[in-house]
Amino acid sequence: MTATDKPDFVPIYDSLVAEHGDVPAEAREAAEVIQREAAEALDWSRVHGGG
User: Fold this and answer.
1) What CA–CA distance (Å, rounded) separates 24 from 32?
2) pTM for the structure as a whole
């Protein structure tokens, strides 16, 4: 029997998420917010009458 065959097996990622939260998901969400803000900041269409 391997560790993955045990019913109580918890992958290391699951235990890290339980301890520290889902850091990759939080970083991904923060990056999406920054991308939206950057796109808005660099959108010159309103200045040039395009929107």
Assistant:
1) 12
2) 0.57
Q: HSE (CB half, 13 Å, CA atoms) of 23? A: 8
- Tell me if 9 sits within 8 A of 3, measured CB to CB: yes
Spatial distance between the Cα atoms of 18 and 11, rounded to a whole number of angstroms = 11
Q: What angle do CA 8, 14, 15 make, to 5 degrees?
A: 80
Kindly state the tokens that stand for 24. Answer: 């990759």
Q: Which helix (H) or strand (E) element contains residue 15?
A: helix 12-20
The upper half-sphere exposure of residue 1, i.e. CA atoms within 13 Å in the direction of its Cβ, equals: 6
pLDDT one-digit tens code per residue, 8-41: 666 788 888 889 999 989 999 999 999 999 999 9
